[in-house]
Sequence to fold (565 residues):
Amino acid sequence: MENKNENNLEESKTSLNFIEQIIETDLKNGKNESRVHTRFPPEPNGYLHIGHAKSICLNFGMAEKYNGLCNLRFDDTNPTKEEVEYVDSIIEDVKWLGFDWGDRLYFASDYFDQMYDLAVELIKKEKAYVCDLSAEDVSAMRGTPSQPSQASPYRNRSIEQNLDLFARMKAGEFPDGSRTLRAKISLDSPNMQMRDPAMYRIRHAHHHRTGDKWCIYPMYDWAHGLEDSIEKITHSLCTLEFENHRPLYDWYLNEAEVYRPQQIEFARLNLSYTVMSKRKLLELVQEKQVSGWDDPRMPTISGMRRRGYTPESLRAFSDRIGIAKRNNVIDVALLEHNVREDLNKRAKRVMAVVDPLKVTIKNYPVGQVEELEAVNNPEDESAGTRMIPFSREIYIEREDFMEDAPKKFFRLAPGQEVRLRYAYFIKCDEVVKDSSGKVVELICSYDPDSKGGKSPDGRKVKGTLHWVDAHHNIEAQVRVYDRLFTVSDPDGDKEKSYKELLNPDSLSIIEKAFVEPSVKNAAVLSYFQFERLGYFTVDKDSTDSKLIFNKTVGLKDSYSKENKN
RNA sequence: UGACCCAUAGUGUAAUUGGCAACACGUUUGAUUUUGGUUCAAAAGAGUCUAGGUUCGAAACCUAGUGGGUCAACCA
Fold:
């Protein structure tokens, strides 16, 4: 084991992803005074998802690894889509993931004045002009990758006229959409980004930070490079779809004659059985397909937090998926592996019965209650032990009993003996059914010498069941989640929209589960392992009188897997 | 259709930069086990998209092809 860890350490030393290779080369060459300064630049138009977590871990991770800095910067250049609610949620999520931006919380909108001044400079250099064309006209004149664009009739306005018009745009003299400021770059570049892209558009909209100060707002390409430049970012990491924008990024910074960070693109994360676009997630929220952005089925950071994922597990996941330029789809099983790995070490074990079947132990004294000692976490001795009440009537899991059991069924069946964890061996003597033939109760007998679950005579008992006392317990609601979509690639279906592929059974609510008394005052988001069932966390909908648990993920289950095939 | 990017076990990422493919997840098998969990041990699974070329030697470099992705918003 030690050897393995050493190997992994060595590997993480020598095996660098392509961004680390670039950074190390830059460091070696003394580029940017050998600084590393990154940034995570979300647009506050939605909640962060696991794909953002990858980017957050990358940006903050690179800064950490190379003794640099990472800023949190809101790219808030479009007031019609952005809201403070999103700003707040993003701050909470990044913090929860465990990253610290110090005092470097920035907003693109804080730079609007500088951006405006620089745009004026471009006009003076005849590198930008005010265009009166409508969006439709521009689109119609755009041409195609192989056919050049038609020049805007306003392309050759005088500097003075451009200056005047741009100032009046800013002053609010023109209605929305009536004019834009455009960069004067090319009419026939095969890269469509370079065909006189818009730099400013008119939007008489209230901005969450600048209020009504502005009615013109910078476009992404113009704004983003300047934001990076102003913050002296060294490596501006973004996703692949901005690859075609890089020449424009460079052109703007070059023409603005300002410090030029290096844009590097990497492949965004895709996860099987879910969607990762903010637009689609927004639709699920707005159409009430889910309870909100933090619905535990959502791939959002807030949803996963509520589901019971730990920040450590998300960070470990991010490390393991790697960074590259190849389009990828990560198997959710890897994500689930990472939570289990973390929770296995940390979660307090507890017994809960989710689908109760009553068991009466006929030879156990009526009215007697014993307190039995149970281990809190076999992976962590310091977690200690606790006492669990046991009496004549208990509940076991319905699926732990079978009347006609196959040979490899190590659980309860007529005549078969099992161990009740930490309690006693019991044997099933009698099956009680209701008029419809449904099993409603089991009559069993116990071996008093097997107290604690120990075999009194060395006899082997293969099965161990979890249980909860029928009288000393807590009733709880349990919410069990399945994948949100029925297919592994909901975006990939040509016929059906992702909404038609939603899993109708992604949420099942168990109103009446029984949990052992020790969880009584469990705090929201505290996590447990319900033995043999999986990991669970306390939902925020819980009240003083009713606990609600979310199932984070089940335990690995080689038994039921075997039986599916 | 033009430009740009990408191509390595089922999935993802490596290969100390040209020296005969490794790690993780997943899968399977066995051992241990008072969780059919954990842990431990092992196995199967690619010869690196194709075809040429350079080289003593290519997953890596070159050319062409094929397949996939991105771009033609006054979104980011």
Notes: Chain A has three domains: 24-266, 271-348+476-564, 352-466. Confidence is low (pLDDT under 50) at residues 1-13 of chain A.
